[in-house]
Amino acid sequence: MSSVTPSVSPQPAPPPADEPLQQLPIIDLQNFAFDEAGLDRIAGHVDRVFSDIGFCYLANTGVPIEQMQAVFAASKAFHAQPQAAKDTLAINDFHRGYMAPKTSVIVTSSVAKVTKPNNSESLMVMHEVAEDDPRFGQALQGPNQWPADLPGFRDTVAAYNAALQGLAQRFTQIIARALGFAPEALDRFFERPTTFLRLLHYPSHPDAAEDEFGSAPHTDYGFITILLQDGVGGLEVRRRGGGWIRATPIPGTFVVNVGDILSRWTNGRWQSTPHRVQNKATIDRYSVPFFFDPDMAETISCLPGLVPAGETPRFEPVIYGDYLMERIDKNYQYRKTAG
Prior knowledge:
With 339 residues, the chain is an alpha+beta fold. It has seven helices and 14 strands.
């Protein structure tokens, strides 16, 4: 893999405990080319950051910047199509396809009472499930939908998706190490991962009211999110003590955050942090989040050794697929219509 060296400043020292964090931390992976001591240093940094705010930038991941640029170009080409062309790919029962603006409301948000729909549109691509797969036809186990009139679109998006899945699987071994386990300890949960790649477009909305969002305050459902954002900005992350930090775009990096399932797995040691998007710029914003989650059939319960002696786990075990479907069924208009 080729190296990406983003334009980043050296990692600043953490602020004193009584001083609020002003910038998301940067974790430099140096393309994972480390000895054991280097990997342990990265893992220790991940543990501190995910315990404190649950968000960071990842630099030097090995994903070529040309591939980042290509997926943005593909997304812009898709969203530039006539509305009628996009509507032919309307999201299907397997949660794959085009979501028109203002068709999702995050009613399951644990951090805000959300009543207005998100002002964004997107194309959702998930893990591929072949027709001869025993899971085919079950919840979220079906075909992706691809535009017919955009040459090269499918190949570009599929290649980016594969690169992000590889990054997520390697980073999962860093996560296991950060929690005190062998690097491969979590691998079995991701032999058939549940993945979502979302090509998001946020229209410019400079006069947005305080309760109007491209993405209303929420936490992510799953394990980790790896976000590629353009240079427009608009993502904000809530500090533990209150207030919001702008996740200012840094070229060549990803923004990575803990999801609800990973927080549950760690008994709350790591934070699934609320975040939101308001595009108050005078130009449109594009972002490409990749959500990397366990197999839907896996039972998620607190990992061994992460519950203090004499205490009970903070969260009951859940089957990931049940947990996920409850949220999808409540948050997306097409699910209610189908129901």
